[in-house]
Amino acid sequence: MAVQEARQGGADPAAHEGGCTCGDCPHGAREGHRRAVAAFLVKRDEYATGQGLPAAVAHSASASRQWVSEELAQAAEAVAERGRAEGAAWLARLWQRTAVVVWAGVLALLLVQALTAIGAGWTSARTAGLLAAVLVAGALSGASWFHRARGGALAPVIGEDNRLSTSRAVAGSWVLLVAFAVLVLVGRLAAASDPRERDALIEGLELARGAGVVTVLAVVCGIAVLVRRVVGLRVQGQRLQKVRAHRPRAADLLTDDSGRGSFADIQYVVINAVALAFAAVRLARRPDQLPDLPWGLAVVVLVSAGTYLAGKYAEGGRPVILSVVRAREAGDLDAPIRTGDDIEIRGTGFVPAGAQGADRLARMVVRVGPVNVHVPLVPVVGGFDNPTDDLLTVPVPADVEPGRVDVQVVTAAGVETNRYTIDVTE
Q1: Which residues cross the membrane (predicted)?
Q2: Contact by Cβ (8 Å): 153, 98
Q3: Pairing assessment for the beta strands 337-338 and 420-425 based on DSSP bridges
């Protein structure tokens, strides 16, 4: 549908075309990005079928490939700029949505308390719970306003790669639950007039009552800090490739950087969500103490956290060149590698997770001796035939001197592969 609109020019070509004429308009940024993507897909598919090539380069396969690659690279950069603008606009209006969701939760709690109070009567515990929810919602709303340019209340759980962090989101959920539980006890303690009731509420904060939930809180917060450190060190050591996303998405909590479901993330989120639900129910049933999470459930959460951390250690890897051979077309004679020939670089990890977009692929470089060669974009209908994660095809530039030459790939994440030596003949 978007492609058809791009071909037809859309219903209103003047609206949100180029720069948005509505000022700082999130809708204009979103519409501009959508149209830029649609136009790029049309151009890519046209070049893939041989359409749109100028007559000056149509007679030469290498010249037409280079011209198409440059055109697609420039168009992809324009799409990337639109994507960054759309991401910034999305974050700028996210704080309002988070504030609405938070206060909707307070309203839902009020309705649940009102319904459950029928017959049982309104108690001080219900009042304390409602006041605690208002305090937490007010604090989150204030934080949302102060961080409105970075996603509102979600700013602390957005990672350095502009994706939602699973470990931070899980830790933040436990922090909010424990803070809410303590505020409920504080409210009940402030309203209690009987000394025995006050003593019982203070005993509810004893470690023996909430050892399970305190242990889980300590572990998930430690995991959030440790994962950030582990990822940072692996990126600096070139053992993990990270590409910045245009904007965070809810799916980031359950997927890897390429958008595929991650078992480590999914099990961590699911098990912690179940444990949080159990703890919330226990707090509702026993509002006079911290949620007494059973040790069996706490151990399950700890096992899940260990699995998640192990997955972070195991993911990624450095790109590697396995072999370099001369590219041969049908009918060509077998021959050594000469300047001007195409070479196939075979290996793994050339395209990092999240770098499948044309603007990222256009940043890939192959060093052939002292010369940096940008990897040409070769379009096919629906995607690109070059570069791929395990195969790159580039020409040997004329500036390369005959002899033994090192070949090295630099990915879109800036990570360098090993050096592979080839022989270039005259």
Answers
A1: 100-122, 128-148, 169-191, 211-231
A2: yes
A3: parallel
